Amino acid sequence: MHEKKKRIIEVGLKLFAKKGFHATSIQEIAEQSEVSKGAFYLHFKSKGDLILSIYEYFYEKISSNIEKVDLEEGLLPRERVEKQLQDYCKEFQQHKDFFVMLMRENISLNDDIDSIASTIRSGQLTWLQRSIHSLYGEQVQPFVNDAVLIFYGMIHAYLQKLIFEQITYNLGEFSSFLLRRLDDLVEGLMNDHSAPLLTIKETDNSIELSLFPHSKREEAKAVLRRIENKLNEIELIESKKDEVLQSINVMQDELEKEEPQKVVFQGMLVHLKSVNQLESYRNEISNLFHLQLL
């Protein structure tokens, strides 16, 4: 990264955390970065663009810290993961005022932040997947999908308390505590005889979590067939029956896709809402894929 751009990002991060987004001017950022206002616009289109760059910079720094620990020699897998967790949480603790500001102020970043957040999240999940494999070996493979997501949620639930409730953790004790809870989690998953809930698709060294595992898809297909049978038992006007059948067909087609879309199911289930006799089936499908009924 260009040194001048890096300096603007670091100054912007500090000023936004201290004064807030709206109270900080571009002129002020430029002056404290020791660049002209014109030089600021050479690197950033707006303050919102700077916020996005800060977000990326923050997570690039975290990724760099993780990679540095990976390159350290002589560390046992548990020592390595514990140190990475400690460094990961330390960055959030040091910059918690910035994240409080992001939540407090109404900053319009459109869809850009969602795209960046999705990329970052994939990288974090890949790191956790790799870490879990290094700690527990191949025996964890059937359960790694669920372990990754639950552990990710556990970490960030505690980080939210650190950031938004101003709770202070001893990071050494905290990372050790998280690993012990991961031990409990993995042991529970490996002793559970239920089928895994989530699947992981690997693409370009990243992972995406799917809420449509094949076991759940087969259950959903069975529910859709029961709806078709139910339609033959109840009295409906032809247009309403056609609407329901069309919705069933759309959902059946969606289940055959590599990655079905939740929004499609939510939309199709709306068409079943007006038929009281189908409400239980509607609930079954929503529960299978954790959908919010509209």
TrEMBL record:
Top-level taxon: Bacteria
Ranges of the DNA-binding region feature: 25-44
InterPro entries to which the protein is assigned, alphabetical: DNA-bd_HTH_TetR-type_CS, Homeodomain-like_sf, HTH-type_Tx_Regulator, HTH_TetR
GO molecular function: DNA binding
UniProt keyword Hydrolase present: no
Protein name as catalogued: HTH tetR-type domain-containing protein
UniProt keyword annotations, A-Z: Coiled coil, DNA-binding, Repressor
Residue ranges annotated for the HTH tetR-type domain, each copy included: 2-62
Coiled-coil blocks: 217-247
Pfam families given in the database record: TetR_N
Species per Swiss-Prot/TrEMBL record: Bacillus solimangrovi
SUPFAM superfamilies referenced in this protein's UniProt entry, alphabetically: Homeodomain-like (SSF46689)
